[in-house]
Amino acid sequence: MSDRGAPDEPTETGYAVELRDVVKRYPSGGGEPVVALDGVDFAVRPGEFVAVVGPSGSGKSTLLNVLGLLDDPTAGRRLLDGTDVTNLSVAGRTRARKESIGFVFQDFHLLPTLTAVENVAMPTAFDPGDATDRAADLLGRFGLGDRLDHEPTELSGGQKQRVAIARALINEPAVLLADEPTGNLDTETGEAILGEFERVKAEGVAVVAVTHDPLVEEYADRVVDLTDGVLTGGLPDGLGSETRSEPNRERDARRIARGDG
Amino acid sequence: MTDRDGQGSGAAGWLRGWRPAVSMASRNLRRNRVRTVLAVLGVCIGVLAVAALGIFGNVLALGADDAIGDIGTQVVVSPNADAGVESLSDADVASIRRAVDGSAGGGAAVVPLYSDSATVARQGDQTFATVYGVEEPALAYEAAEGRLPERHRQGAILGAGIAADLEAGAGDTVEIAGSQVRVIAVLVESQTFSPVAPDDAVFLPESAFSADGYAQALVISDSGAEARAAADAIRESVNARQDRVELFELAALVDEINEFFGLLSTFLLGLGAISLVVAGVSILNVMLMSTVERRQEIGVMRAVGVARRDVLRVLLAEAGLIGAAGAAAGTLLTVLLVAGLVLATPAVDAALVIDPTNGYYLLLALVFGVGVGIVSGAYPAWKAANERPVEALRS
């Protein structure tokens, strides 16, 4: 996993994941289509932790779905590890997700019939070769070496989220996408999970977390704001048209004042 | 990463994907045991109905076949009295033989018979019987006791019925039309319905008769088709110029009887199939419910990179396992049920029940059970596997 910081193939930009002028519109029952993403430019370097904040309904989930190849943009380009993945077939998107993207959800979404180690190996269950050893190694690294054969109901929230992170890393992805990763955890456990994210990014994985949690913003290298489908600060410093590098605290104060913190 | 990219190719890769699918499927089925057991029970009853009714129809058909015996394989040739022919001459018999040998199959035996009637007595018991003169009895009949000679030169052969009436066996002496004759053989009881009924007849050598012609000739074939061909050939050649002989054949009737039993079997199978369809609907229902309940889980599987094909496999394996479990239980239950019925009903001939053709109905029901599972599971599985993960995760 450590070679993620320097991708094997030379890429155009060196970004793990990149959106260029992406627009996403949803049809809405005969009326004007809803614009969820409006000309979004977004890029994350390998080993960078980016938090995406913004009010509910601002298009954060859509952004994550488009980044995660769960949804296709209406217009614009999408690159993964320097490869254009804007228009892939359903099977192609599934394969790209398996190989290059890890997902972490607010509700953990572990399969209840599988043990911890089976959940971690689940993305590769139908592939040749047995990933059980790799899964066990990963769980060991997240301090769950003694919980391999426990079912999700026998694990605490923090343990479940660690299993989910291990599952996301089973195929050594370029990008880890997290949707409110601390949303269902108490502060202490949330901080522990964010600590795990730091380790993940230290191994060269780009981490993108959509969140309402100020704690996540503290751990992030960069915080970008999505409001009404418009993303500010989507590109690393000095590259965007609307560069913005307000300190976190200041923006937090503003958001709290606005009442959607 | 590239070392794990290949999905494997060909049949080996395709087969390998089923192992984790079946393993996940069986765990999913265990989650809601009551629902799974009920669905299995539905298939079990459907398979039981198909197998039991199929076997029931088959046993009826086999029993009828057994009772009708080989009337379909026998043709009785008699002189046509209407045309003034009182008996069959040697020339007639020879032309019948020629016709039969030239017909399709060609292996039929021709056994000419003299016929008369006489009183038969032994130790005070007395009965009136048809007496046939026959040279080669072994071609048409089988002995239960004693031995049928190649050429019948002396002694009497008794039909099963008359032997029982007189309590006579091989080696005993009976009185036929006043003269003492030794019994050389007793025939097996006839299963045949025929104008030449051997059960209440006595067979003597041809030399005992002084008639100037044969009363009848039996044409004995191995199959109904052969008998029909022989009868057609006799009509064409012996009766070419004049209707010298009359033919009595039941092959056509036997065909119709068999057709009827075929229809009955199909009808019974259809009846059973209805319950299997009901079982299929219950699997459909169970699978639809369970895929709706697990919508998010399936969405997560798809999101983390499990291919649609593999999701489909897991769900098809669930339906197939329900079908297979139900079919196996139903088949076992059918075997027990049929065995119980045979033991409880002495009228049913056990030999008919263990006839290998009944195994075909068991196999048919088993295959149908598994098939119903997979067919009913196909739509819910396809629907769930093709749902966009982004929709499934949203709920």
How large is the count of helical segments of chain B?
12
Query: Helical proportion of chain A?
Result: 25-40%
Task: Sketch the major β-sheet of chain A.
Answer: 6 strands, mixed
> Helix- and strand-based class of chain A?
alpha/beta
DSSP, total strands of chain A: 10
CATH architecture of chain A: 3-Layer(aba) Sandwich
Secondary-structure element series of chain A: EEEHEEHEHHHEHEHEEH
Rg of chain B, rounded, reads 33 Å
Shape of chain A: globular
Strand arrangement, major sheet of chain A: 6-7-8-3-9-10
Mean pLDDT of chain B: 85
CATH level-4 homologous superfamily of chain A: P-loop containing nucleotide triphosphate hydrolases
The total domain count of chain A is 1
Tell me the structural class of chain B: alpha+beta
How many E-type strands of chain B? 10
- Could you state the oligomeric state of the chains shown? heterodimer
Explain what the structure shows.
The complex is a heterodimer of chains A (261) and B (395). Chain A has one domain: 3-Layer(aba) Sandwich (Rossmann fold), CATH 3.40.50. Chain A has 8 helices and 10 strands. Chain A has helices at residues 60-67, 90-100, 116-121, 132-141, 157-169, 187-202, 214-219, 248-258, and strands at 17-26, 34-44, 49-53, 75-80, 83-84, 101-104, 175-179, 206-210, 222-227, 230-232. In chain A, a hairpin with a 2-residue loop joins strand 4 and strand 5 (83-84). The radius of gyration of chain A is 18 Å and the shape is globular. The two termini of chain A are 35 Å apart. By secondary structure, chain B is of the alpha+beta class. Chain B folds into 3 domains: 16-67 and 257-394, no CATH class; 81-108 and 221-243, no CATH class; 112-218, no CATH class. In chain B, 56% of the residues lie in helices and 16% in strands. Chain B is built from 12 helices and 10 strands. Chain B has a 6-stranded mixed β-barrel with strand order 2-3-8-5-7-6. In chain B, strand 2 and strand 3 form a beta hairpin. The longest helix of chain B has 43 residues, at 251-293. The A-B interface holds A 65, 68, 70-71, 90-91, 94-95, 97-99, 101-103, 105, 109, 111-114, 122-129, 167-168, 171-172 and B 1, 4-8, 13, 16-17, 20-21, 24, 27-28, 30-31, 296-297, 300-308, 310, 313, 388-390, 393.
